[in-house]
Specification:
Strand content: 15-25%
Largest sheet: 11 strands, mixed
Shape: globular
Strand order of the largest sheet: 4-3-2-5-1-6-7-8-9-10-11
Low-confidence stretches: none
Number of domains: 2
Mean pLDDT: 94
CATH topology of the largest domain: UDP-N-acetylmuramoyl-L-alanine:D-glutamate ligase
Radius of gyration: 21 Å
Distance between the termini: 61 Å
CATH class of the largest domain: Alpha Beta
Number of helices: 16
Number of strands: 19
């Protein structure tokens, strides 16, 4: 078969699987993976076969889909989903995929927008171009589709302008009335409590929601997932069950130890780091310690911004390496440190990440919170063209064992 024939065959497989599935696609800077995984939990709680595809991998009814390429992973996931009777595919969509035209090839039934903050400017060059890539997902919605927007994010107003009039638009918020909004959010070490503002969906859900994951960001993710699932026709009872059963995503405010509370989080943007540190502060009765660095070969402008946030929000900072890639770790650290001006946190620089984690945990008291930010679920660290095995979680557990 020639190249054109192979392309046509792949497109035919795309079309056949797409026709058999309803897709809830989630995009945004932060919260995509968690919201997508929450949606899969709701589908499972409804008693249906389920499937999710995120940047952490693809799973159909609990079975991991292994593939050699993103294309093989996607086709393998959707075709297996159809074969196993899945009705709803929970899908995370990145700005890179959207830039490459994914939404035109696989238009969603329901599109969810979590937020937009500074990230991937090395790829998109400007915030406007970054938002334009996200907008592709919502422009691809057809008549009868639904857009679920974060009403607390200013970019949602811009997205509304490009969404077709035939598309149903629903909102979620932790500040104002919306399709589903929270009037209060309380964070505890063992979960998050939401009090819901009165609305048709909130009333059907019983007016409150208790999550097993900690963090106000998880409250927003849960609201987004609930609105999207409701738009897909899932019952309020299934929505509540799915969200209350959800135990979290690896590396997303993952608590790996208590007393001291040690948290591993993927926060690698200014907004992500700020949200993580503010959540950690709510749980902290002692000192808040932040271990983080910034990645090389990626948007250097965010480095001093993240340094300023750590300096302002933490009590102690251990500045280390993230994935330096082709850049010198010392240069990256110096740019981060430039943001730490005036009174603020006490800083230490230790570019060996495992040692930085060990130092932070060894010095922590039982009432302290240690946040290890930036790499989350990642299993490797890339430096000078070499990718070596490395896990923040494993490094933290080793440090805890050595205390």
């Amino acid at each position: 078969m020639g190249a054109e024939g192979r392309v046509s065959a792949v497109e035919a497989r795309f079309a056949q699987a797409h026709a058999a599935l309803r897709t809830i696609a989630t995009t945004g800077t932060n919260g995509k993976t968690t919201t997508t995984t929450m949606l899969a939990s709701i589908v499972e709680a409804a008693g249906e076969p389920w499937a999710r595809l995120t940047t952490l991998g693809a799973v159909v009814n609990g079975a991991q889909i292994d593939a050699r390429s993103p294309m093989e992973e996607f086709l393998g996931t959707v075709e297996r989903s159809v074969a196993e009777g899945v009705r709803t595919l929970a899908l995370e969509v990145t700005s890179k995929a959207l830039l490459e035209g994914f939404a035109r090839r696989w238009p969603p039934s329901i599109a969810v927008f979590t937020n937009l903050t500074r990230d991937h400017l090395d790829l998109h060059k400007s915030p406007e171009a970054y938002l334009a890539s996200k907008a592709q997902l919502f422009m691809a919605l057809g008549a009868g589709g639904c857009a679920v927007l974060n009403d607390d994010d200013p970019s949602s107003a811009l997205l509304r302008e490009v969404i077709a009039a035939s598309v149903d638009v629903r909102g979620f918020s932790t500040r104002e009335p919306a399709t589903l909004s929270a009037s209060s959010v309380s964070v505890f070490a063992d979960g998050t409590q939401l009090t819901l503002r009165p609305s048709a969906l909130a009333d059907a859900m019983g007016g409150s929601l208790r999550l097993r994951v900690a963090g106000s960001v998880h409250a927003r993710n849960a609201l987004a997932a609930a609105v999207a699932a409701d738009a897909a026709g899932y019952s309020a009872a299934a929505i509540v069950r799915g969200l209350e059963r959800f135990t979290g995503v690896e590396g997303r405010f993952e608590i790996v130890h208590r007393a001291p509370l040690v948290v591993v989080d993927y926060a690698h943007t200014p907004d992500g780091l700020e949200g993580t540190l503010r959540t950690a502060r709510e749980l902290c009765t002692g000192a808040l310690v932040c271990v983080f660095g910034c990645g090389g070969d990626r948007d250097p402008g965010k480095r001093p911004e993240m340094g300023a946030l750590a300096h302002t929000l933490a009590d102690r900072v251990v500045l280390t390496s993230d994935n330096p890639r082709s850049e010198a770790p010392e240069v990256i650290a110096a740019m981060v440190r430039e943001g730490a001006a005036g009174p603020g946190a006490h800083w230490m620089i230790e570019l060996d990440r495992a040692r930085a984690i060990s130092l932070a945990i060894a010095a922590a008291g039982p009432a302290d919170v240690v946040v290890i930010a930036g790499k989350g679920h990642e299993r490797t660290q890339e430096s000078a063209g070499v990718s070596r095995p490395f896990s923040d979680r494993a490094a933290a557990l080793a440090a805890i064992a050595a205390r």
